[in-house]
Amino acid sequence: MRNPGDYVRGLRRHGWSSFRIIADRSICSLAESNLRLGSKRSVAKAATRIYRWPLAQKFWDTTRIDLLSASEYELLVTSLLRNKRWQDAVNVADFAELQGLSGLKVALAKAEALWQLKDQSAFEEAREHAIDKLTNPSAAAISLIRNENQVVNIASRLELLLATEEHLDAIRAKAETLRVEGDGSKAFVFWNSGFNAAPGIVSTCVAQQRLIYGERLVTLTAKNLHEHIDLPKQLKRVAKLWPANFSDALRVGLLAKHGGLWLDATVYTTENSLEHQGKYLAGDFFVFNYNGPRIASWFMLSKPGSYQARLLYAAMLDYWNRNRKLKNYFLFHDFFEVFYHLDEKFRHEFDRATKLSASPCNLVGRKLLWADADLNALDEALKAQPVQKLTYKPGNREHGSNTLFSQLSRRA
């Protein structure tokens, strides 16, 4: 039985759509217990909406696809993609097209599946077919769809681009009004509840940051944020309901105003990057990236008043003025990619910026952290890349007392 408080929090987080989420969870829980509330199609739809991918596909596989509606085809191809059944996704998209029920999302799903299958010519053809389904397509929307740096889940980024495009003038105007002060000399790290209550691995990382940055490190908590940034009302609500997304908005807000460096509380570093800005700042703003404008957000270096930082912060404020719920956990990362296609100055700033891959920064967090502690291997990794992104969430990984994770989790 769920705590009644969970339902109240759900209502605050999702509004009246909470009742749909509660219903979907109930349907899925019953189905997982070999009980069924409603048709097999109802279970499949409910499981897809709440991202229970194996369960969703189990019930989609028992559903007659010739009886589906256009919106149900969208759910089905999404489930097939997330279950990595690429060829089945292509087949269903083709069938929906024959039925006259293939919309933009189904066409984009087919393109993604063909990209995963490495069928380049068919992928390009499917991508152009998806563009044909756009109504009055803008150059930015076409550019986003044709971008091969990040094909996965492109439908959600296209939705964000189209919504942002509609309010772009207001976002730019807001960005121009943001107050700029500071000299870019500080590094910022944030833990909402205070560092004394933080997990051990956070304590270790921040102790290392203090060692490297000394008095230039500003440690932020919910209690002292007001000393460094004026938070609009809408972000205070986000802080309670979506803390990770709040942190994304906070970091660009701070950098737009003060410049300097943002470090996640799980970044372990042996380099004072403020003293090596020439390594990072070819322009006014730096982020590590994975592929093209697909970025990592846990380390950011900026000059005060950076155009990119101001535009991103203004976009986050605009989004939360117009939306009551978070539609995508990676909203901030999607905004960065969207502006690359939508705003010429933003694209120019990113193209001329220093490019450093985020992948080497994940060596410790993805491999060494879960093996028996090897300080020599850790030292070698830090010599190769002195900025390493760790995690305080082991998930289902083994993390016995001999692992590096357990050793670093002992409070500094």
Task: Note down, in words, how this protein is organized.
This protein is α/β, with parallel strands linked by helices and 412 residues long. Among the domains are: 67 residues, no CATH class; 188 residues, no CATH class. Helix content is 55%, strand content 8%. It is built from 21 helices and 7 strands. Strands 2-1-3-6-5 form a 5-stranded mixed β-sheet, sandwiched between helices. It has a two-stranded antiparallel sheet with strand order 4-7. β1, α12 and β2 form a beta-alpha-beta unit. α5 packs antiparallel against α6 and α9 packs across α17. The chain is globular. The model has no long low-confidence stretch (mean pLDDT 92).
From the alpha-carbon coordinates, what is the Rg to the nearest angstrom?
A: 23 Å
How does the helix and strand content classify structurally? Answer: alpha/beta
The largest pleated sheet is described as:
5 strands, mixed
Our count of helices gives: 21
The fraction of residues assigned to DSSP E strands is 5-15%
What is the H-and-E element order? Answer: HHHHHHHHHHHEHEHHEEHEEHHHHHEH
Low-confidence stretches: none
**Structural shape:** globular
What is the multimeric organization of the chains shown?
single chain
Annotation, overall tally of beta strands:
7
Which sequence of strands runs across the widest sheet? Answer: 2-1-3-6-5
Rounded average pLDDT: 92
Short description:
This protein is an alpha/beta fold and 412 residues long.
Brief descriptors of the model:
globular; 412 residues; alpha/beta
